[in-house]
Amino acid sequence: MRILNIILLFISFNVYTQASVKSSTNITTNSDTSTVIALNNQAFNARLTNPGLTISNGNKALKLAVKLEYTNGIAESYRVIGIGKSYKNSIDGAIENYLNSLTYFKKAGNLQGEAKVFNNIGNLYRDIDSYKSLENFNKSLKIAKKLNIKDLQAGLYLNIGTANQKLKHYSKALSYYKLSLSMFNSLGNKVGVIQSHQNLGVLYLNLRDYESAKKNLEEGLAKAKEEKLINSAAAINLTLSSIHIAQKQFDEAESTIKEGLMFTRILKDEKLEYNYILTSYELENKRKNYFKALQYLQQAYKQDSARYANNISDKISLLETQHMQLEKQKESELIIAKQKYSQILFLASSIVALLAFFVIFLLVKNVKKSAQTNKELTRLNQEVSKQKDDLDRTNQNLEELIEIRTMDLKNKNKKLSEYSSHLSHQIRSPVATLKGLMLLENDNLIDKEEFVEQMGKCINDLDDKIININENLNNPNRSSLINED
């Protein structure tokens, strides 16, 4: 009886120890998970003021989430990194991270996460392809309504309004903006309120209702400065400067541009700075300071504006296709690995079963049949070797096929990228000259005959370059589209 009590005590102690260890492990895991969530929240909140910090904290969260195998944490980390990349105007990096995020949210069955990513992808397309932008916003809105996520719905109404404004559907845009502003006010979302006022200001500018535009923009600017959102303040100042120019308030426009450029240079936003240079050109041109206007125009065209061209839409679509192909390739490799493992397991089991059978057979039968048994084993080994050789040949063929297809895709991507860069480089010079001639003609600074002659030269130059580009593109013997002028 005493021995039985000792055994029971020992078992109870072991159970208690294991439970304590398990509880301690859960506490550590929950703590680490909270760290991932906190890092992602910090990264997201820094997106408007410091996108570099967004990317840095997102990468820290991703590293920890991967270590913990925390699927939702991995997905959200990829999403915030994509947001940071988009604010840094890195389109390739943004779409790659968004697609990775979408994959992990689907794996986790997280519909809310999927809705956020569709919204982010829609924002990426916003300045490039309004129809694709609306397609992704509507996917997100459908989920947001289903899950009753008010904050996301408000943001989506704002984004859908912007897409409609790009399509010049101004009445629809105004309706969505007002709905968004109302929801953000009721939710107490200050950032959303600022963005709503900013977008309403742009819309009223397009409608040439300058007073309403000013009212919304100035209210948004005051709130942006109060919240220290220099990204929003810089963008609002850009729109305000355009209104001042339209109303011939040139001193106010100059002051607004200076303040906006100060914010823009803190952000190191090349795209926004490029827009400010064009606005400065517009201001000096209206002032009839043509020499200074020409300096701004030359400065603008020195910058690499090709990254903001319409063909970015095709590039994003290509990256989406490439990502899907890589996902399918990974699935194929996983299936092949599972098949290989199953074959090896089946082969090993068969060999073990056969060996066991022959061991029993040898024990039952007498020693005289040992020679026959050895012969049978040799035959089986040869068959196994043959099957292994066949499997190796099959794997080698599959690897070669994958390598060929990957190389073909890279070549196609390279040729498309070269064509895009070459087209932008070749066409921009004569187009810039044509724009300069038009400005001179509008201000009567060039003779008609010289204007016609110079226009003819530009058109002939443009025609020659287009013919040259088409010949290079349609030449199947060329591995590269770029040639020297």
UniProtKB/TrEMBL annotation:
GO MF entries: phosphorelay sensor kinase activity
Transmembrane spans: 344-364
UniProt KW keywords: Coiled coil, Membrane, Signal, Transmembrane, Transmembrane helix
Signal peptide: 1-19
Any matching Pfam family: TPR_12
Coiled coil (residue ranges): 370-404
Record's keyword annotation contains Translocase: no
Protein's UniProt name: Tetratricopeptide repeat-containing protein
Organism of provenance: Daejeonella lutea
